[in-house]
Amino acid sequence: MWKFLLLAVAGYLLYRLFANDIAKKGKASKTEDAEETRRKVEAGEMVKDPVCGVYVSTEGNISVRDGDKVYQFCSYDCRDKFLNQLKEGGRELPPLG
Predict the structure, then answer these.
(1) Nearest one of 86, 88, 58, 85 to 74, comparing CA atoms
(2) Shared domain check, 48 and 36
(3) How far is it, in rounded angstroms, from Cα 91 to Cα 74?
(4) What pTM value is reported for the model?
(5) Rg (Cα) of the chain, in Å, rounded?
(6) How open is the CA angle 17-20-24, to the nearest 5 degrees?
(7) What is the dihedral of CA 35, 36, 38, 44, to 10 degrees?
């Protein structure tokens, strides 16, 4: 009986030890990710999607050119919403080509 009780307590202590380590690593990685995103935005490697606000790479392949301005999108859904907003506002981008 005592062996089982000691084993249960040791197991619980190990669980708590590792659970705290995992939680700390999760918080640290979120901070590092935010800092990395901020650095890339400042360097011009990432821009904000004008529809949903997610940061995307400037080298992404989902984009729309409006004169000299190029808009980058996280998905085709966001791109389509952007184009529909332009149409509703009375503007339409000329076709490429």
Answers:
(1) 58
(2) no
(3) 22
(4) 0.57
(5) 24
(6) 140
(7) 160
Q: Are residues 71 and 81 in the same domain?
A: yes
Block mean pLDDT (10 aa), the chain, length 97: 80 73 57 78 83 86 85 91 84 60
In this structure, what token pair is assigned to residue 33? 């990710």
> Cα separations (Å) of 74 from 6, 22, 55, 88?
53, 30, 8, 21
Question: Which residue segment(s) compose the domain that 89 sits in?
Answer: 44-97
Q: Give the chain's domain count.
A: 2
Phi and psi of 65, rounded to 5°?
Answer: -100, 130
